[in-house]
């Protein structure tokens, strides 16, 4: 006599098949199988959560929110569905719902239609994770949004001041003042900034003078970063792990410029007279000579507050 499979067993099998399809890159088949699992066992939250995950990484926020709400109807304490519903509501600008999800998760958040604001705290974010991943520092202003405060490279296709939507699952760790900080992956650029990215190459400076020059630019409201010392190429294992805690696995600076040349990244609000701005700020360092100055990423939007 054939072995009978319970409804829960059939749903679990369909869910496993869907997971295999998703992991193999066939999202359409996965969505169909998750939907079948949800029909076989209507009280099970897992298929709905998994549907929401696919839509989250596609950036289909209305569908992601709907699927996570279905999961929460079946399991009101499902932490993953709560968090992902909060992300989707944030992406859609549904602030009262987003705040309700963060409160439900345990985060102190007032009930309001205004955008969420927890007060900025520096957090490492991996921008453009699929095409040109780069981990940089950003001001995290709520559980799912952050404003870039590093100067991203040209390859990252991101700018100082970009407002980002980011995931809540840690994908690596970095240290800041001795404290371990989780790295979160960018999900979407919500608002590109009005800053253009410029690359400045300077001769005649030692490392200390280069840092002083970067600080001089920053103090003059031209955010700057000494790329010669701040950029490092990491293997994927280190980038998604704990590179600060592995001294035996070195990653040299990544600028590729000659030792005598210092490379700075600059964020300029007004690029009309970039050369004049640079020369004026370098006037106090007579030994320094400009080797090259070029815009590597023009500004495109109004973006987030500076």
Structure, described:
With 306 residues, the chain is α+β, with helices and mostly antiparallel strands. It has helices at 7-23, 27-40, 46-58, 61-74, 79-91, 95-105, 207-219, 227-230, 236-239, 274-282; strands spanning 121-127, 134-142, 145-148, 163-166, 173-176, 179-182, 184-191, 196-203, 224-226, 261-268, 289-297. The protein has a 5-stranded mixed β-barrel with strand order 1-2-3-4-7. It has a 4-stranded antiparallel sheet with strand order 9-10-8-11. The longest helix has 17 residues, at 7-23. It is elongated. The mean pLDDT is 91.
* Gyration radius, rounded: 23 Å
Shape: elongated
Rounded mean pLDDT score: 91
Strand order of the largest sheet: 1-2-3-4-7
Biggest β-sheet strands, sense, barrel? 5 strands, mixed, barrel
Topology pattern, helix = H, strand = E:
HHHHHHEEEEEEEEHEHHEHE
Poorly predicted runs: none
Give helix % range. 25-40%
Distance between the termini: 71 Å
Q: How many E strands?
A: 11
Strand percentage: 15-25%
Can you describe this structure in just a few lines?
The chain has 10 helices and 11 strands. With 306 residues, it is of the alpha+beta class.
What layout of secondary structure does this protein have?
Layout: H1 7-23, H2 27-40, H3 46-58, H4 61-74, H5 79-91, H6 95-105, E1 121-127, E2 134-142, E3 145-148, E4 163-166, E5 173-176, E6 179-182, E7 184-191, E8 196-203, H7 207-219, E9 224-226, H8 227-230, H9 236-239, E10 261-268, H10 274-282, E11 289-297
Parallel strand pairs: 1-7
Antiparallel strand pairs: 1-2, 2-3, 3-4, 4-7, 5-6, 8-10, 8-11, 9-10
Helix pairs in contact: 1-2, 2-3, 3-4, 3-5, 4-5, 5-6
């Amino acid at each position: 006599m054939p072995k009978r499979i319970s409804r829960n067993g059939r749903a679990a099998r369909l869910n496993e098949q869907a997971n295999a399809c998703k992991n193999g890159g066939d999202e359409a088949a996965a969505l169909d199988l998750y939907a079948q699992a949800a029909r076989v066992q209507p009280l099970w939250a897992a298929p709905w959560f998994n549907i929401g995950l696919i839509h989250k990484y596609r950036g289909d926020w209305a569908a992601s929110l709907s699927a996570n709400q279905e999961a929460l109807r079946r399991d009101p304490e499902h932490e993953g569905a709560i968090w992902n519903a909060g992300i989707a509501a944030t992406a859609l600008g549904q602030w009262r719902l987003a705040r309700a999800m963060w409160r439900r998760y345990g985060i102190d958040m007032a009930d309001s239609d205004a955008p969420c604001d927890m007060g900025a705290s520096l957090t490492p974010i991996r921008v453009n994770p699929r095409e040109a991943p780069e981990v940089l520092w950003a001001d995290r202003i709520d559980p799912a949004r952050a404003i870039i405060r590093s100067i991203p490279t040209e390859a990252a296709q991101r700018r100082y001041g970009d407002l980002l939507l980011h995931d809540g699952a840690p994908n690596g760790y970095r240290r800041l003042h001795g404290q371990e900080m989780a790295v979160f992956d960018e999900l979407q650029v919500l608002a590109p900034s009005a800053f253009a990215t410029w690359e400045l190459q300077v001769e005649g400076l030692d490392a200390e003078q280069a840092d002083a020059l970067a600080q001089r630019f920053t103090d003059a409201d031209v955010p700057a970063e000494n790329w010669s010392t701040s950029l490092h190429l990491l293997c994927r294992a280190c980038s998604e792990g704990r590179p600060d805690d592995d001294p035996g696995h070195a990653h040299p600076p990544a600028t590729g410029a000659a030792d005598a040349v210092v490379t700075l990244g600059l964020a300029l609000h007004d690029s009309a007279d970039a050369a004049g701005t640079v020369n004026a700020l370098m006037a106090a360092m007579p030994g320094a000579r400009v080797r090259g100055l070029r815009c590597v990423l023009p500004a495109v939007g109004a973006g987030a507050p500076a």
